Each structure stands twice: as structure tokens, then as C-alpha cells.
Amino acid sequence: MLRMESFHINHQLKAMERVEPEALDLLADLLMDQKTIEKGQPWIMEGNQLNYVYLIVEGWAMRYKLLPDGRRQILNFQIPGDLIGFFSSLFNASPSNIEALTSLKVQRFSPGKALNLFSHAPRMALALSWLAAQAERQLDEQIVRIGLRQARERMAHLFMELHFRLGRAGFDDSERRNLPITQLQLADALGMSPVHAHRTYRELCKEQLITRHENGVRLNDPAILGQMCGFDKGYLDFPDMP
Predict the structure, then answer these.
(1) Is the dihedral of CA 56, 216, 67, 135 positive or negative?
(2) What pLDDT digit, counting tens, does each position of 188-205 carry?
(3) Beta-bridge partners for 84
(4) Among 10, 13, 147, 240, which one has the highest count of C-beta atoms within 10 angstroms of its own C-beta?
(5) For residue 121, with 0-12 CB atoms within 10 Å meaning exposed, 13-18 middle and 19 or more buried, which class applies?
């Protein structure tokens, strides 16, 4: 049986408290073979049927939509501990594309088999549903980010959201400062042209708030970035479990 202690989702479930201790073993029993996905590989395609729920064990992915002319809108970034397709049994097809942003390792389980877990551990069912539903709350912030915030605020706010999510998943301060995101991906995530994104990125670099490195960007001063965009982590906080 797999050990849940090695999974980032375990850190989040334990932080919620009042999740049945035995439910972690039941969840481990659900997980099937591990799959490795190479960096840059489209993994789930819009319109395809989803037969499994996926748990990201290691690596990053991005969820996006494509227009017929090839333009791309990145909706969100998926990090270790995230669930993908949790509500897939309610829909006929995937609403978006998912691509490996880095080399990716995932575990999967069948939505049907999860019903047995939910019947024995209702608080676990609630906790997993909350984690999966976080995508909707993050999408709310994404709409506000693109629609109302200025360029510097948009970029800083996205950086802070990812920084906080990594901490919630159990990464230490040094690890959660490194984000494997390119400037082009930032442009597609923030509704900016590549030129505008590059200019904004360069400004933050000159102010030594971020540093570019070969695998993405490093956040040098999350506190100042948070003040710059008025970041409020309330939408990402763990709930009070009943």
C-alpha cells in the first residue's frame, strides 16, 4: 500500500483537521499505477472523456483553452497535491486542456471507487471536494486579476497565489519561491501581450523583487510583492470542518 505521508495532498488534508485518520489509508488504497508525463506533453485534451481522477504527486501542469486561431488562455497552474477531474463523472468531457509544465508524476483513481471511501469517511469526502472546488475560487480571482488589476499587480498577484498554494501543500519557504513559469506562459495567463509581459517582468527584476533563472522565476521578496497587489489569502485558507 502507498504511504500517504509522501504525498503533498496529505499535508493539506491533515491541516484541515477532523478528517478521519483511517480515511488516509482508504485513499491510499484507491490510488492506482503512477504515470510519468514528459515536460511539454499535452496530457488531457479538451473534449476528451475523463475516466479517472488524477492526483499530482510531483511536478507542475497548466490548464488552458485554445481559440481556433491558436491563441491560448492559461486558466490555472496545477501543483503537487492538486486533484484533476474530481467532478469528471458529472460531465461528459474535459472542459479544457492540461499540459505538463515540468516533468510530471501523477496517481489516478476511479470516481466510482471513491464512493466507497466517501460512504465510510464523509469528512474526507468533504475535504477532497473542498480541495477540488478550489479551482473555482482561483478562477474567480483570475477573472478579477485580468479584468481589474494593472500589469504589475496582475503578475505580483499570480506569484503570491502560487507562493501561498505551495506553502499550503507543505513546501518550505525556499522551495515555494521558485516557480517554473516562463514569460510567455505568464503573458498567456495574465491576458497580456508577450511584449507587455516582458516589460513588466523586467521592471520587477530591476526592483530586485524577482530573479529570472533557467527553470523559471524566483521570488526574492514575497512580502513586498504581496503589498504591491494587495494580496488577500482568504480565498485560499483552509475551511473550518464541521
Answers:
(1) positive
(2) 999 999 999 999 999 999
(3) 54
(4) 13
(5) buried
